[in-house]
Amino acid sequence: MNSTSADIYEIAMGRWSRRLSRSFLDFVAVPSSDSVSAGSLSSGSLACSSLIDVGCGTGSLTLAAATRYPDAKIIGIDLMPDYLTEALRNTAPNAEFETGDAAALPFGDDSFDTAFSQLLLNDLDGPARAVSEMVRVTRPNGRIAATVWDRAGGLTFIRLFLDVAAILVHGAGEELRKKVFDVPYQNEDALFDLWSDAGLHDVDTTTIAVRMDFLDFEDYWQSLMGAHSLIREFFGNLSPELAHEVQQATMRAFLAGQADGRRSLVASALAVRGVVPRTA
Description:
Blueprint lengths: L4 H24 L4 H6 L11 E5 L5 H9 L4 E6 L7 H4 L5 E5 L12 E7 L8 H10 L1 E12 L1 H4 L1 H13 L3 H10 L6 H10 L3 E14 L2 H11 L1 H8 L3 H16 L7 E13 L5
Parallel strand pairs: 1-2, 1-4, 2-3, 4-5
Antiparallel strand pairs: 5-7, 6-7
């Protein structure tokens, strides 16, 4: 049975993005539609509120929001239709899923009370354009928020492998580590500036920590190989002997001198939120 893009994502990242979603929504503190109209930032019942999850992937954040705000309408949009399975589309009665581009959202101005995005901005060629679109489709006094993995400093499960690769595969391993870590937003200050440059007010940032729990090294390795296409390509192009050496060294780093079994690694994400200014 061939694995779909959604299957690979679920193994590699979906289970962790679900954990991240809960803490991210705490930080977003979605305002109610009434408070948006009145210019207040306090959260309310969210009756008749409309929210959009830009770059929803397999729906972790969309479904978390749909559960937390059962009276709100949630739309998840993603460029990859493979993620938007029929099962996902029928999961929550107040959630809808559409295919679309974050840089050209197919919605009119001021369509939503809140726009948020999880684990998207660092994978876009033009993240500022996506933020601009989120601002455009959100009503004045509405909230815009996003979170990205702290890829270089906060993804331990990837760092284990990349450091091994950089040591054992001279040149190519170091280049792989550089490419994976070379993302636009590597700290809270960079996200703060992105939101401020978009004209958002009351900008705030934070770092969110979640646990990544693995059953054993095999579970870890499956997640790692699905985490990033560059990692899969790099490992697949190694000679059998070097691939074995890299995998064994990564296993020793993962086990840390103990028997194989459950491990829990910390992962951190950077988050930012801001308020759409009132129109003149």
